């Protein structure tokens, strides 16, 4: 924010850059946040069309505001009260109603707000992204079509992402809209190109720094002496954001007063079980890079929109579709607007009795085993012929199929490893909440406590020997069979030792597993350090196969579960979008907070920027 105060005389070392705000992520969330931080302010238009059927309570509240009211200086929570829609956050719903009035009713009305540039509202900031502006949109298959029409993909102040100067008229019934129509679904390459164009059209180039991988966000160390009265004094920085610039080949550091998380929720595709991982493609981009024709049958695992896209991509080949119940996301799509998805949804619902050409569904099945055919010449496991054993969870019958390609599309989650330093392991009861740990054995009778303690001491002293006896350690409690859980869900597999999944009391079942190995029974493949704390008796979890901080454990609405943009978004203060389980000054928006459609992202940015301006104004006073 510009001011006429005496310039700050405090300086930083040459390798540290001060910014008031650092935005992590340069996708649509980062773009619109930068647009507002750059001094572009939303104002309410002086007149609201009387024939526009907006929410009556919202209309009454808007009419009570002075004409041309600055929304950054308005009680936004009061305006958003009672609004309903496809977002769980009030400000995204409010902003969507103001930018696209009655969009869900099929209207294409003008926005109820207008944007004005105010140099006094400009906040010094930087937007950091791994790639070019657009984020994950550059990684999607170029021809993959969006769910939303062009008008719902545009960011303020634009009405559509199409470069055409004027939108096309609404198409007549029975006729497809033109490619530049705001009603037309767009390919991913059009959205990626729009994001790059957006930075230039809105004059935001100086705020963006591409090719930077953020590695950590930490609380800034206390400086030498107090900050001066200037609100932009670097001594007032609360956070240090570290990263690596791949273009310059060096580390970079920013200190700032606030951090905005706009990194999206599609960084980490869900990991297939170990039996499938060497043989499976894990994202649509890999599939689209293959030649159009697939030599043999293909197995698609998943029940969401991405799996449906894979089935569409493999048209012409024989597709075996392993899925659970058809998801609500497919069922909610209207047939007229999404005939392609509706057809796949119908085939999934018809089941094996549907008798569709080149499509065989396998509902309620899991993959038990994958065996590459030895006589095949192709050395790449992903593209050689494979025999796959499937288990029907309803009938317990097994089926063997031969496929040349396996595509596993079971969702994705955000990668929040850079927040690791704000996470406190002592707040999580691993023994209770880690679903991948070795499950606890029932507590022994009081008379056997001494014997059990002796066993545990023996395990402590002979851990390396036991590790060799039990065979090579296998990550995160995986079974050689995939157990009775749906592969395309978020649940995990269990060990072949039955007692391994009974989490009851305090002692581990390692000794029991050792006894079974010595007697010739199944071998327990779980890997865990079998000891407890003498102070708080918490089991030390060592079974996480990846960076334990990547999942964002501790930041979600349920802090004991990984952050997920659909089922467990980051917990925020709804009025400011500030994180609840993090140091004050860290914000989040977009898919991280459950707003998975671009149309709802500007509302989160409005909440963040309004709160930043309120705090800076308070500090200046």
Automatic annotation (TrEMBL):
Comp. bias intervals (Pro residues): 164-180
Region ranges (Disordered): 163-184
SUPFAM superfamilies in alphabetical order: FAD/NAD(P)-binding domain
Source organism superkingdom: Eukaryota
Coiled-coil zones: none
InterPro entries: FAD/NAD-bd_sf, OSGIN1/2
Database matches in PANTHER family: FAD_NAD(P)-BINDING DOMAIN-CONTAINING PROTEIN, PROTEIN CBG05349
Protein name in the entry: Oxidative stress-induced growth inhibitor 1
Organism: Parnassius mnemosyne
Lineage start: Eukaryota, Metazoa, Ecdysozoa, Arthropoda, Hexapoda
